[in-house]
Design a protein that fits this description.
Elements (H helix, E strand, L loop, with lengths): L4 H16 L24 E8 L6 E7 L4 E3 L10 H4 L1 E9 L40 H15 L11 E4 L9 H12 L43 H6 L7 H6 L11 E3 L3 H4 L9 H8 L2 E3 L8 H9 L3 H6 L5 E3 L11 H7 L14 H6 L4 E6 L2 E5 L15 H13 L8 E5 L23 H8 L5 E6 L6 E6 L5 E6 L9 E9 L4 E10 L13 H13 L18 E6 L66 H22 L1
Parallel strand pairs: 3-17, 4-5, 5-6, 10-11, 11-12, 12-14
Antiparallel strand pairs: 1-2, 4-15, 7-8, 9-10, 13-14, 15-16, 16-17
Helix pairs in contact: 3-4, 3-15
Amino acid sequence: MHPDRRTVLKGLLAAAAGASGLAAFPARRASAGPPPAVEGTTLDTTVVRGAAVNPQGYVRLASGGGEAHAVRDELGTVARPGREGRRIGLLAFVHLTDIHVIDAQSPGRVEFLDRYNDGPGEPLFFGSAYRPQEFLTPHVSDSLVAAVERVGIGPVSRRAFDFAVCTGDNTDNAQLNELRWGIDVLDGGAPVRPDSGAPDRFEGVHDQDALSYDVHYWHPDGAPLGQPEDNARRLYGFPVVPGLLDAARRPFTPGGLSIPWFTCYGNHDGLVQGNFPQSVPLTALCEGPLKIVGLPAGVSPDDLQRGLTESDPAVLASLATAPVRPVTPDPARRVITRGQSVREHFTTGGTPLGHGFTAQNVRDGTAYYAFDPSPQVRGIVLDSVNPNGESSGSLDQAQFAWLRAQLDQVSAAGQDRLVVVYSHHTIASMTNALVFADDPSPRVLGTEIRDLLLQFPNVVLWVNGHTHVNRVTPYRRPGGGGFWEVNTASHVDWPSQARLVELVDNRDGTLSVFGTLLDADAPLSYGGRLDSPQALASLARELAANDWQERSDVRRGSVEDRNVELIVPAPFPLGSSPGAPGVPAVAAPGRPAAGSAPGGPVVGRSVAGGVGARGSVAGGSTERLAATDGSQVLTAGAVTATAAALALRANREGAADG
């Protein structure tokens, strides 16, 4: 039996880790690339909305033509002829964003607020509180991972992907079970059961419960006896798909990524419903036996949003009078803090351990870090979530100072590296100045961060999510140059895409950033089948394209926002050899054995879907890592903290095996 691509690549990663100790991503020989490899990408073919199949306007999906890279030069540097034959690949990575793995049965969700967005001109209070396809999000994520694995290389540079990065909102409601499903889907190789509450039935707004039936939601099994058709079927032509809810709850084994994957922290990862600060009442609601199905008498959506954001006791108390339905309680739905979310990434079967988060993040309860994915590039990952609430983003003062120090370090004489910034929020959506009495320091907003980055010519790219829209924005420096902001559509909403990003040296004083969109590895039509993750992902994408609150291609962006070549001046001579000396590398991506130091043999895997008890990860030492966090050799304190995290994983695996 011949080993498959995944086995070979993971074996090479492990061997590289053992041979090089803490060397991260070994330098690869650069070479001029042949014409783009279009197969499997939107350079070859696209998925588009097809013709309506009924009078209500429900559409199937169709195959569209491929889209070439649109060349953009708004930073004042022209695209020079002949660069196709000169270019050398410096970096190739996969941009996954806004995966929104959703526990659609959680009592902590507020789907009933979404109806205030139905109809034109309605206020957009809670536009993401309900989606007809929401219970299929783990399958959509798996299908996009499969597409990444199928393509395997950057289509222009033909460089094997260095890593993937998830730029936040990996979960939907900051719940532990959602995070575990998401991590385990990206890791792959072990069964995932995307179910909660009752083990024998689906309990949520899509189900057949006659007492809580509501026409505002799509019910795949049709209306209960004696009840009217739901609006999705009656007004928008949605199908009846018997058995879908049970199929969505079945365990499946995801393929997983064979490359290292890193992560960012998003507002849905840190705030309940992406808006509300964590509180005892909200946490109890998520785990408990009652699901609110409507607003309390006399409370408006405005009142509720304000009350939950500000933890108004009167509004929280009013929730006790809201109409409810009973559901099966589940402690796996508990809302987790930033620190708990960071620690959970150390229970993984993927690489690197912690997925970018470091021992210092564990100790400090932070979620920003730096890493060096190639000899010429520094990656800087920001945490743009305001813990005080609201969906828009900003930075705290300490993180902003850390960012400045990072930029100074890689811009010093002899230390030059290109810089790629990653975050959840875009510059335009970092407008959240909300502060509370216990932390009154002013928040740092997007324009101030933008202005800082423009001071450093080696910052060439900022990659982010949040908007669920494909959009590319130039930020020009006075006198020429600047950086590009690349924003990619989400997994959860139409068009359900990821983006392949390549940074290449054109060897003429310019760089090109190529962005190539990637559709899910799922058939255009599910064909009435519910027996595979691919079929379920196909149906989810079709449902997303028919979401009655959108039913448009706005989120696809314009042609100039999809497949792009973005020209930027090279800030310094790059050459084709490894980068400047003296810049440390990120810890090796090999999977350590439970209880061993990083860089050891690769054994063990987390139990998919498990949510065992957690202890403290931080060790007794107060020693801290240097400013580059995961880019440094581990100190004694870091080893202690990491070993503790590995011990937690070992305990969890042992409990599962027993």
